[in-house]
Amino acid sequence: MGPAPSCACAASGPIRRSYVSDPAIAIEYRLTTEAKLHAFIARSLTEVGVSEHDAQTVADVLVAADLRGIESHGSARLAKWYVGRIRQGLIDPKAVPAIVRQTATSVIVDAGNGLGHVASKYAMDAVIEKAREHGAAFGTVRNSNHFGIAGYYAMMALPHDMIGIASTNSMRWGAPTFGRDTMLGTNPLAYAVPAGEEPAFVLDFATTTVPLGRLEVFNRKALPLLPGWAVDSQGNSTTDPVAAMAGALLPLGGYGTDLGGHKGYGLGLLVDILCGVLSGGAFGNDLPRRKENARGAVAHFFGAFRIDGFRDVAAFKADMDKELRAFKQSAKAPGQDRIYVAGEIEHEKTVKHRAEGVPVHVRVWEGLEQLSRELGIPFTL
Questions:
Q1: Whole-Å CA distances, 147 to 60, 77, 119, 298
Q2: CATH for 96-209+252-342?
Q3: Where are the alpha helices (DSSP H) in 287-343?
Q4: Quick check: pTM over 0.85?
């Protein structure tokens, strides 16, 4: 990541108000800078045995999520998902990813139960290098852990005039269509496509109605879920985030087949096949259910291919601008003043947050402050 602009924010973090879909519900955030957040995350990780290089990698991914407004996968995960699991002996902070099989256009990496971000960047770097030489390449990672936002790794291909792909399976939180057992993770898919003057097209989505992190965010903010997102432990629809976290997420499209839930289920299963089955890692019933403390039981999938293998890059980017603008300039529905394309909102939030400060929810802020006390390090946000 590039250096963050200077910010006049005090170290204690000014309060600002942000609003969710209901403007009557105000949520408090504190502001910090990209540089301060990055430094605190990296320091926290090195304090529990992660190398400086690997800590910088993890911090890159988490700060990218916060900058893009994906607060469910940013600094909010530091204490519990990474530092906490390392301290419990569930993640090896010193693991070194290793290539266990490769061809000219493919690679399998064993993460050795290390941090998913580290193994994933290593694998995507290898995929990009192979694609640079041969036009296209794919890779998988096994025996890994949570890797942050999938879009980060897909976007690694953009500076190379390539289209990037990233995906991961995960702890089981989702039920199959017409089922209530948790059989699939949130299993996101991410694609990043470069454009010319327009921001890159970055599609990054869970194959469940929402990612698990969204339930955590709504629970943290004491907000009800939207109907159709999840079921409780008995398979009944619920808007209670606590009941949902004890039950199951629904596939993208919701319950049954009327609104396409079977398509989301199919996509989630495809991700499990590409990540788990193809890598020789964990999949299906081998994946942990919620609250099961499995080690290294996550697998990832990556891909990249050169645009100039198909056509002139400049002409492609010009046509991408034309394509994206056509959608944004199309007729709006009543009461709507703007149409977005994938990645545009996150791009605008990144620009805004770099200029004005990165928002951290007050409860996350307090959790990070508590983490600093536990680790005996300065709280420098």
A1: 11, 11, 8, 9
A2: 3.30.1370.60
A3: 313-328
A4: yes
Instruction: Give me the DSSP letters along 172-230.
Output: B-BPPTT--S--B----EEEEE--SSSPPEEEEE-SBSS-HHHHHHHHHTT-PPPTTSE
Per-residue pLDDT of the chain (381 residues; tens, 9 = 90+): 443 333 333 345 666 555 344 444 456 899 999 999 999 999 999 999 999 999 999 999 999 999 999 999 999 999 999 999 999 999 999 999 999 999 999 999 999 999 999 999 999 999 999 999 999 999 999 999 999 999 999 999 999 999 999 999 999 989 898 888 899 999 999 999 999 999 999 999 999 988 777 888 899 888 999 888 888 888 888 999 999 988 899 999 988 888 899 999 999 999 999 999 999 999 999 999 876 677 888 999 999 999 999 999 999 999 999 999 999 999 999 999 999 999 999 999 999 999 999 999 999 999 999 999 999 999 999
- Burial of 105 by CB count in 10 Å (0-12 exposed, 13-18 middle, 19+ buried)? middle
For the chain, the structural domain boundaries read 1-94+343-381, 96-209+252-342
Domains 1-94+343-381 and 96-209+252-342 share a fold: no
Class of the CATH domain delimited by 1-94+343-381: mainly alpha
